[in-house]
């Protein structure tokens, strides 16, 4: 599956509707794996819910009892999984959720009414 297909909401029906093809599972599993860590899940929540659609790493780091390099590692993992984009502005990096990827993951986990 191409990187584009992995972020295309129409690429994969809900798990409850049809068997997930091997190629789609391989493309999407890094995002689920990244979200399997509690710190990364919290970071993702903070980024996705940030006012204005983005948040500075300077606002993320103080929320955790972890070192800056550890937070940076978790943020790199989220980026590598295609869940967030980052932009450097001066000395700070600002993070934004990739809504298309989040919609893809949500669509995959959606269970139709009546099931």
């Amino acid at each position: 599956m191409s990187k584009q297909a992995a972020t295309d909401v129409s690429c994969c029906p809900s798990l409850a509707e049809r068997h997930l093809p091997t190629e789609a599972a391989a493309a999407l599993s890094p995002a689920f794996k990244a979200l399997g860590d509690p710190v990364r899940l919290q970071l993702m929540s903070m980024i996705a819910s940030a006012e204005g659609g983005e948040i500075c790493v300077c606002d993320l780091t103080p929320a955790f009892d972890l070192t800056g390099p550890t937070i940076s590692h978790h943020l790199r993992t989220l980026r590598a999984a295609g869940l967030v984009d980052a932009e450097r502005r001066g000395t700070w990096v600002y993070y934004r959720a990739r809504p298309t990827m989040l919609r893809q993951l949500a669509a995959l986990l959606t269970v139709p009414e009546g099931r």
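Confidence is low (pLDDT under 50) at residues 1-9. The helical segments are 3-6, 22-35, 38-48, 57-60, 68-80, 99-109.
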